[in-house]
Amino acid sequence: MTDPKIVFGQRLIELRKRLGWSQERLALESGIARSYLGGVERGQRNIALVNIHKIAEALSVPASSLLEPPSAKD
């Protein structure tokens, strides 16, 4: 089984890039530090539920969509 933090991070990258946003832009829109977001995207951080909701709101997606596996486009 793949580490859920890594899967979450890959999905976050996918959604962020779909909008054409940098980590810096997502940090500004969500109010979460860019360095923290980088750690989340790399699967190094165990993100809190409150921050999942902040990111989902910034990306204008349901929080549940962040828990879906990333697309297999690549």
CATH superfamily: lambda repressor-like DNA-binding domains
Bin the helical content: 55-70%
Structural class: mainly alpha
Provide the gyration radius in Å.
11 Å
List the uncertain runs: none
Q: Determine the N-to-C terminus distance.
A: 20 Å
Instruction: Count the E strands.
Output: 0
**Strand composition percent:** under 5%
Mean pLDDT: 94
Number of helices: 4
Short description:
The protein is mostly helical and 74 residues long.
Features:
single chain; 74 residues; mainly alpha; 434 Repressor (Amino-terminal Domain); 0% strand
Would you mind describing this structure in some detail?
The protein is mainly α. The protein has one domain (4-62): lambda repressor-like DNA-binding domains (434 Repressor (Amino-terminal Domain)). It has 4 helices and no strands. It has helices spanning 4-18, 23-30, 34-41, 49-59. The radius of gyration is 11 Å and the shape is globular. The two termini are 20 Å apart. The model has no long low-confidence stretch (mean pLDDT 94).
Topology:
Blueprint: H1 4-18, H2 23-30, H3 34-41, H4 49-59
